[in-house]
Amino acid sequence: MPEDSIGNYINLAPAAQGRYADLYKAQAVFNKRVICALKIFKFPVPPHNYDLRRALLLEAAAACELYHDNIVRVFDYGIDGGKLYLAMDFITGETLENRLRAGPFTPQQAHKLAADIAGALCCAHQAGLPHGNLVARNILFREGSQDAKICDFHLHKITALPEAAAFAKTPPSDRAQQAYTPPEVLAGGEHTARSDIYQFGALLYAALRSRSRSKPSAGRLSETSVPISARSLKR
Q1: Which of 131, 220, 132 is nearest to 179 (CA)?
Q2: Average pLDDT, the chain
Q3: What is the pTM of this model?
């Protein structure tokens, strides 16, 4: 965990741990009533590595350009103490991943989810920014709300850097995650706006086909979670 402050933010409290970054709840120095979520990346940013610093700040600035009702807003970023951080709206609620455990969505719920995701993707793609990892855990719902908000837009450009990979936390085997991965990405290609559309379809499929709290068997995940599986690449 970093010190109790970073950049213009203080009173950091751990909220979640991720593969490439950790999430903290924090207060803004300029107004302690402003509560935000701070994503602090694990890898160090050396002060004299100007190329890396420039690349990181360019990608962070791009994420700040997105503004849409269904996108979690990133409103600040910086490098402090050798760490890259992003400040974003703090969302109290649950993820789509959690909601899917309760069973399939009704057609009306799926229609609302589709409209929210499509609106966010349209905004981002018009700005030339694909999401890069459009999976259920990156879609949030405020407590008591049916409005979906997508987080972590465009961060795949940061996590794809060799410096990020070197300090990434090794994830457990996650075949469900692989089921959302577009075939061209599995084959080593770049994630594009079209890849987002594939993942969008996979999410809707999961929402409509999601079983009750019991999990599908591991052997059937790649066949039933999405319309196209990794094995189709071998055909």
Answers
A1: 220
A2: 85
A3: 0.83
